[in-house]
Every structure is written in C-alpha cells, then in structure tokens.
Amino acid sequence: MLLCPTKYQDMKNELSNSVIEGLSALSFTPTGKENIDQGERVVSLLAGSWLIYKSIKNIVKHPFIGLQGAAAGSLLVYRGATGICPVYKYLDKDTTDPQAINISEDITVNVSKDKVYAFWRDLSNLPKFMDHLSSVEEVSPEQSLWKAKTPGGLVDLKWNAEITREEADIYIGWQSIEGSMIDNAGKVEFRDTLNGTGTEIHVEIDYFPPAGSVGRGIASLFNSVFERMIREDIQNFKSHVETSDFKTFAGIV
User: Which of 77, 80, 188, 252 is the most exposed place for a label (fewest CB within 10 A)?
Assistant: First the structure.
C-alpha cells in the first residue's frame, strides 16, 4: 500500500504540527495533575519526537508501521508536554512522589537494657556496626549531623537530625530537620527479655527522598540493595556486642 505524494505531505504536516503543539504546550509549572516527574517528561518528549520523525520518513514505504509509530510517538509527546501518563493513571502509579524506604527490624542481645540503651543513645556509636553510615556527629545534646553512603559509593548523603522523644532505657526517637537533603526518621525501643538478662530491641528507620526531580535522582539510589544494606546493619548489632569495643563501653569483663 503506497500513499500519493499529496496525501503523504498532508499527513507529514499534520504529524509535524502535533509535535510543535506538544512542544508549545510543554510547561514544568506544576498543575497538580501530573503523574510523571520532570526527568521522565523530558525523556518522553525526546523519544516521542524522534519516533514521530522516523515514522514520517518511513510512512510512504510502510504506511501501517509508520502510522503505528507516529501514534506511539504522539502519546510520548503528549506525556512529556503535559506530565500526564494515561497508562500510569490506569495503574494508579505516580512517579512524582519518590518512594521511601521503611524498615522495621527486631533483634535480641544478651546484654542488660541499660547498657544497650546507653550505647544507642550515643548516636556516634551507630557507624560502628552500621556500614551504611559514614559518621554521626553529635553537635548538641539534641541535634546531630548524619552522613550516609549509598550503594557503590555514588554519592554521600548528609542531613541534620534532632531527638524528638526519649525515655531512659526505653525509647529513642529522632527525625531530620526541615530543609535537609533527605528526610530521615527513626525510633528504637528497648525491652527486657523474659528472663531479665537480655534486651529485645525494636528498630524502625525511614528514609524519604525530597520531592521533585532532585528527589527522583536520590530516590533512584534507594533501591533494594540499599534497603538490604540497612537491614543487615541493624542485625550487625548482635555481632557487635561480642566485640571488645562494645564490652569495653559496657564494662563487661
């Protein structure tokens, strides 16, 4: 099936106009209806424009394939121009809201609750068994500066946090200060074991990337590898209590 030159030119003009209209409609000013982030919009716009261009070039020789490609390209252009993906809408998916990591772990150690609490309350001790933390520096009794490593060491994350609640030998809670590079929050609860000689520890740690394209970039680092790293770090405390460093801290002979 071949198209006459006049009809081909009309279709070419029509497809080209759709790209121009998509470009003119492109605006990164939020409307509240977007469900894809800015980075994905740019990729969609570029990919859609390229696909339409290739389809227009091949539409004479392969009209059916050309029309299919042009339709797919137009959808991508619309996606990029508006920030709205009909497929994502159907799947109830929204990439403008970065996914958080929520971790909950329970461990039991054969050390008294007061000694375990004292070790955790000194936040600078956390990097001793949490490999994903480079350092935690206490800048005041209630505030601290945290630095974390991401998988592969691609980027270092840092934020300021403050103690939000504490009860001696029972509970420690903290959260990042507003305006931090990422939002982080956590809590640790301490309970005596049934025999009274050990401590049951319940740990919850949350990482929330900030909104926007920067947040999506950081969120891409918050994958299953990073989550597994943090879970393993928490469980590492069971091994750390057997080290000479912890025994010296706790006064265990």
Answer: 252
Pair of tokens at residue 46: 């570029």
Distance CA 176, CA 164 (A): 10
* pLDDT tens digits for range 37-86: 565 666 667 777 777 777 777 766 767 676 777 777 777 777 767 767 67
- pTM for this predicted structure: 0.60
> Exposed, middle or buried: residue 87 (CB in 10 Å: 0-12, 13-18, 19+)?
exposed
Residue 109: closest CA among 205, 201, 225 = 201
Q: Which tens digits make up the pLDDT trace of 135-192? A: 999 998 889 999 988 766 666 788 999 999 999 999 999 999 988 877 889 999 999 9
What is the rounded radius of gyration, in angstroms, for the C-alpha atoms of the chain?
A: 27
CA dist., res. 32 & res. 19, Å (int): 24
Q: How far from the centroid of its chain's Cα atoms is residue 152's Cα? A: 16
Burial of 244 (0-12, 13-18, 19+ CB in 10 A): exposed
Domains in the chain and their CATH numbers? 5-91 (no CATH), 101-250 (3.30.530.20)
The pLDDT value recorded for residue 213 is: 43
